[in-house]
Specification:
- With about 350 residues, the chain is α/β, with parallel strands linked by helices.
- An eight-stranded parallel sheet has the order 3-4-5-8-9-10-11-12. Strands 1-2 form a two-stranded antiparallel sheet.
- α2 packs across α3, α2 packs parallel to α13 and α5 packs across α7.
- The radius of gyration is 19 Å and the shape is globular.
């Protein structure tokens, strides 16, 4: 698969990686309930409990392991995860997959995050150190190329950027060789933009901000990334599946309610793709990486077939004539999110 340089890190990464927030979940609509469950715990954990939620009942280990193997074999050698995903199950599945196939482990880069677990956010210095140690144990990885500060929205910046807070902990981990680079990965585009604009971060995972139907990144994220040579990793590039298949009846797009006009527009884009023999998912993923600061996309894969399809989309040859015809159809739709 084609690779791109991840900004000032210099890391070469495939243009399609593997997002693992829903890995091993056999049913798409169950992934939606997993999303709702984890979001509610991460943003508003019950004050009376103090305990993390039970481990995900939806992530099936063997299915997840097979998905990791399929992704790497197909060329998606960048794997993105976080302690939040599946209450740690995502990291455990990836770790077991790599232990089973050391030949594949040698070919891949795994990135994870700090500051957010299923028990809620904690961006303190000590918490970040605990998060990283737990991730190392689950993944079986001693050192990382990139560690990202996860979901630092609605938190005063000094509570994240101070020497005795999350960024200070990551700088210490850089000094000791546990991570080479540091990044930001925040689900709110406006918060993510602010962190990128500081110039402190080498890379950024960018959800909810760049796709064929989402242009939020054009305002602040892309200009800041260019200014500071921050390597961008685009999450949600297929809009929870809408830009993989086109509008499909009976699918819960992970708590999103797309407007009728948006769905009709995507159907028009799908018609253009079909006319050129270009899979919609290939257009959606490769369009993101046409921006020079965007190195890769990390569409989520639940099962091996999705991982293979995503990787194959990165290998499709798309002529410039298609991109010229697609350009007038690129537009922004405001999100209609039910949370």
């Amino acid at each position: 698969m084609k690779t791109e340089k991840l900004g000032r890190t210099g890391l070469e990464v495939p243009i399609v990686g593997l997002g693992t927030g829903f890995i091993g979940i056999a049913d798409a609509n169950r992934a939606a309930t997993e999303y709702d469950f984890m979001e509610s715990w991460a943003t508003d954990p019950p004050a009376s409990s103090g305990e993390a939620p039970p481990r995900s009942s939806h992530m099936e280990a063997e299915l997840g392991i097979a998905t990791v193997h399929a992704a790497i074999e197909a060329g998606s050698t960048l794997i993105d995860t976080a302690p939040l995903y599946g209450s740690g199950n995502s990291e455990s599945i990836i770790g077991e997959a790599l232990r089973q196939r050391p030949d594949l482990a040698e070919r891949c880069t795994v990135t994870t995050k700090v500051g957010q677990t299923a028990a809620g956010p904690d961006h303190s210095y000590d918490a970040v150190m605990r998060h990283v140690e737990a991730s190392r144990q689950r993944l079986g990885i001693d050192a990382f190329d990139v560690l990202y500060i996860h979901d630092a929205m609605d938190i005063p910046s000094e509570e994240v950027m101070g020497k005795d807070r999350a960024l200070g902990a990551l700088r210490k981990l850089q000094d000791t060789g546990v991570t080479r680079f540091v990044g930001t990965a925040t689900n709110d585009p406006h918060t993510n933009a602010w962190y990128i604009e500081t110039g402190e971060f080498d890379a950024a995972v960018v959800p909810e901000a760049l796709s064929l139907i989402n242009q939020l990144a054009e305002d602040r994220i892309l200009p800041a990334a260019v200014r500071h040579d921050v390597g961008l990793v685009i999450a949600t590039p297929v809009e929870r599946g809408l830009l993989a298949t086109g509008p499909t009846d009976g699918i819960n797009y992970l708590a999103r309610r797309f407007s009728r006009s948006c769905l009709d527009h995507v159907a028009s884009v799908l018609d253009l793709c079909n006319g050129h023999g270009v899979p919609l998912v290939a257009a959606a993923l490769q369009w993101c990486t046409r921006h020079p600061q965007v190195a890769t996309t990390i569409p989520g894969a639940r099962v091996p077939a999705e991982a293979r399809a995503n990787a194959a989309a990165g290998d499709v040859e798309i002529p410039e004539t298609f991109w010229k015809e697609l350009a007038p159809l690129i537009r922004h739709f405001e999100a209609d999110v039910d949370r």
